[in-house]
């Protein structure tokens, strides 16, 4: 294995992951699920991301998604599978990925040699991913790799995202951050979702948010002004560093040159997608 520059894997993840996430903010995904009869946006999201598990109930999703309130998951699952089967949802999701990427990146980019190269590099990185204790990754790893390069790249980005995410949840548990505390502290870094988006999608109330903030203050992690204390900053940095360690294998397997090239290609793709309005302008931040 080639030694990587510090945080090279994290930097690569940070530009590969957003292209995976575009589909869940895409009107194309909502339209595809509506055709199947799934009109509720929360149910569509849970179905779309959990369909790789099969006909699971709310317990599996609440555990593996971590920061959603169980009650909001239980409103959607398992009832959604009586409307649309997991197999139909997976097919609809992939159709939405196709139209979303073509709309955000353009047909020329989708058909480019760069896209094919990015797919090849990202899939090579996934060869070193491991299934044990990584349920969302493992479920998606059982899905076939699409033939078209842009869909293969999205599939690989999904595997890399869920592999890192599964490890991240183990780190949050070790750090003693419950689902809402994890959200509050991440938002306080300025890199997490804005509170209005969290409260509108995760099922938590303002009282839940305030109570979690109070617990973080009692631990000396959050100040009265809502900003992380020095101890809070250190904890969040430790969480990311530990996540890096658990997620090192794919990038070490790809090697320094491969990681650098994938980061370069992914940066170009995600920059184009962001400029095309892939995400709401107020999605991230403390406000």
Quick overview of this protein structure:
This protein has 287 residues and is an all-alpha fold. Helix content is 67%, strand content 0%.
Residue ranges: pLDDT <50 for 5 or more in a row? none
Mean pLDDT: 97
Roughly what fraction of the amino acids lie in strands? under 5%
Helix content: 55-70%
What is the 3D form? globular
InterPro entries: HTH_67 (IPR054058)
Protein name: SalK
Organism: Streptomyces cavernicola
Pfam families: HTH_67 (PF21863)
Describe the protein in words:
It comes from Streptomyces cavernicola. This is SalK. Pfam families: HTH_67. This protein is an all-alpha fold and 287 residues long. The protein has one domain (8-269). It is built from 16 helices and no strands. The chain has helices at residues 8-21, 27-36, 41-50, 58-65, 70-74, 86-105, 107-110, 113-126, 135-141, 149-175, 179-188, 195-201, 206-218, 230-246, 248-254, 256-275. The longest helix is centred in the middle third of the chain and has 27 residues, at 149-175. The protein is globular. The model has no long low-confidence stretch (mean pLDDT 97).
């Amino acid at each position: 294995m080639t030694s990587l520059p510090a945080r090279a894997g994290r930097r690569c993840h940070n530009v590969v992951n957003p292209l995976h996430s575009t589909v869940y903010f895409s009107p194309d995904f909502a339209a595809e699920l509506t055709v199947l009869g799934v009109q509720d946006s929360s149910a569509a999201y849970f179905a779309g991301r959990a369909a790789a598990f099969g006909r699971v109930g709310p317990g599996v999703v609440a555990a593996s998604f971590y920061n959603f309130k169980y009650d909001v998951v239980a409103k959607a699952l398992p009832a959604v599978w009586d409307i649309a089967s997991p197999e139909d949802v997976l097919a609809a999701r992939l159709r939405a990925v196709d139209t979303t990427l073509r709309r955000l990146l353009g047909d020329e980019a989708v058909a480019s040699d760069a896209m094919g190269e990015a797919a090849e590099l990202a899939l090579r990185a996934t060869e070193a991913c491991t299934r044990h204790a990584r349920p969302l990754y493992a479920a998606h790893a059982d899905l076939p790799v699409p033939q078209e390069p842009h869909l293969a790249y999205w599939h690989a980005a999904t595997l890399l995202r869920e592999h890192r995410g599964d490890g991240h949840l183990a780190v949050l548990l070790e750090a003693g951050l419950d689902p809402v505390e994890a959200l509050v502290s991440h938002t306080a870094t300025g890199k997490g979702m804005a509170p209005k988006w969290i409260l509108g999608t995760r099922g938590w109330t303002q009282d839940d948010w305030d109570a979690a903030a109070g617990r973080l203050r009692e631990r000396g992690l959050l100040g009265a002004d809502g900003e992380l204390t020095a101890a809070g900053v250190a904890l969040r940095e430790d969480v990311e560093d530990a996540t890096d360690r658990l997620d090192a294998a794919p990038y070490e397997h790809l090697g320094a040159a491969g990681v650098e090239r994938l980061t370069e290609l992914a940066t170009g793709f995600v920059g184009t997608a962001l400029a095309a309005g892939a995400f709401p302008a107020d999605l991230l931040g403390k406000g």
